[in-house]
Amino acid sequence: MPTSIYQVDSFTREAFKGNPAGVCLLETPADEAWMQRVAAEMNLSETAFVITRSDEDRDLRWFTPAIEVDLCGHATLATAHILWEQGLRPPDAPCRFHTRSGLLTAERSDERIVLDFPANPPEPVDTPTGLLDALGLAPTYVGQTRFDYFVEAESEQIVRDLSPDFVRLKSLGVRGVMITARSRSKDVDFISRFFAPGAGIDEDPVTGSAHCALAPYWAKVLGRDEVVGYQASARGGTVWCHVVDDRVRLSGYAVTVLRGVLGVATEG
Question: What is the CATH topology of the domain spanning 3-114+252-262?
Answer without folding.
Answer: Diaminopimelate Epimerase; Chain A, domain 1 (3.10.310)
